[in-house]
Amino acid sequence: MDNHISIQDHHLTIGGVDTVSLADEYGTPLYVTCEQRIRRNFRTFKEAFPDADIYYAAKANWNLAILRILASEGAGADVFSDGELYVALLAGIPPEKILFNGNSKTVYELQMAIDSGVRISIDSPDELRVLSDLSVKSGKTVDVAFRVNPDVSPDTHPKIATGLATSKFGIGYKDVLNVYKEAKELSGVNPVGIHCHIGSQITDVSPFGEAAERMMDLAEQITSLGIDLEFVDLGGGLGIPYQKDVQTPEPRDLADTILPVFDARSRDIGITPKLVLEPGRYIVGDAGILLAGVNTVKRSAKNFVGVDAGLNLLIRPAMYDAYHEVVVANRADLAYEETYDIAGPICESGDILAKDRRLPLIEPGDVIAVLDVGAYGFSMSSQYNGRCRCAEVLVSDGGVDVIREQECYGDLIAKHVVPARLLTTL
Ligand code: LLP
Which residue among 66, 103, 240, 278 is best mutated to probe the pocket of ligand 1, counting the most ligand atoms within 8 A of its Cβ? Predict the structure, then answer.
C-alpha cells in the first residue's frame, strides 16, 4: 500500500488518521483526501520536469480546497468549462497559467476566457473565427494554441483515448498548418502555442514519445510560417497503479521519454518554447479514498455487500469497468474469508463498485474503503435516485477539515421550480 495509506490496530488509516473514526464522526459515505499526498505527487511531477509548467487538469477534482493546495504549489490549470475556470480563478491560480480547453465552447465561455486574460486552446476552425470576432469587439488580442489530434493510439480504455484520428477532440493532424496560417492573418488572436492530449490512464510511456515527435514535427512547420511558438503543451494522461501488484511509469519515466525529444528538436528548430503538461489523475488519484458503510450482506448466487455509496458517487467502475482496490477498513489486515461483490444502492444492475473480491468476513455496520478515487470520483458524481452527495474531508498532518459539506434535501430541489398553476391543482 502507498505510504499515506497504512494499517494500525486492524484499521485502515490515511495520512495517519483512522478511517473508522472518520466514518464514526462524519458518517458514510465520505470522501477523504490526503493533503500531503497531493503535495508529494505534484512535487514528484515538478521534480521530473523542473523547467516545465504543470497545469493541473481541474476536471479530475475541482474541489476549491484542493485547487487551493495546488495553487500554493505553483500549479497552473487546464480548465474545460466556464465553471472550472471560475473555480480555478477563485482558488488563486494566476490567469496567465490557465489554459481554457474544450471541443465545443460557447460564446459565453469564450468571452469569459477573453475577459479573464487566460489562454485558449482552440479546437476547430469555427471556434477560431468566433474567437477572433469576439476579441476584436473586446479590443483585445488573445494568446491561443490549437488542440491537435496527433493520431496516436495509446493502450487504454476506448472511452478515455482522445488522440485517435476518429476522436472528437482536436484538429486533424493534416489540417493544422492551414489553421495556423489563418490565425496568423486574423485579428484578435495571437497563435503562440500548440497542444495535444492523447488520452488518460496510459501506463506505457511510448505513445507520449510518439506524440512528442509528431508535435515537434508540427512545431517545425509552424515555426517556418513565421510563428513564434512560446509553448508546447503535451497534455496529461499518465496512469496510476489501480491494482497494487501492477507497476506503472512514474513522471521520471515520462520525462526520460519526452524531454530528449522536446529538447533536441527545439534546439534543431532553433526555438525555446516552454513545455506544458496537464496531469490530473497522477496528482490527485491516489490521494483520495471513499468510505462506504455496509447496510446488508446478501448471500445468493453471489455474495452481495450492499453499501451506501454507488455509481452516484463513483461512476468509474460502471462507466469504464474500472478496477478500484477495496479494503474492509475496520478489519484491514485480516485474512480473506469470502468472495464478495460490493454493490451500491442505485437502481441499476451495473451499480457494482467491485466484483469478485476476496475479503475478510463482512457484516452490516462494517466500513468499506474504496481506494484511488481522488481523480474523477467526486467530480463525476451525481444526484441520481435522489441521493444527496456526501461530504468530503481533507486530512492533513493528523488533522481533519470538512472541505465539502454533505448535501441536504434542499440541495436536491434547490433549482426546481413548480409553476404556480400546478400549486393550485391539488
Ligand atoms: N488535459 C486534457 C485536455 C484532458 O482532456 C485531460 C483528461 C487531462 C489533461 C488530464 O488527464 P489525466 O492526467 O487525468 O489522465 N473520467 C475518466 C478520465 C477522463 C479524462 C479526460 N481528460 C476516468 O475516470 O478515467
Answer: 278
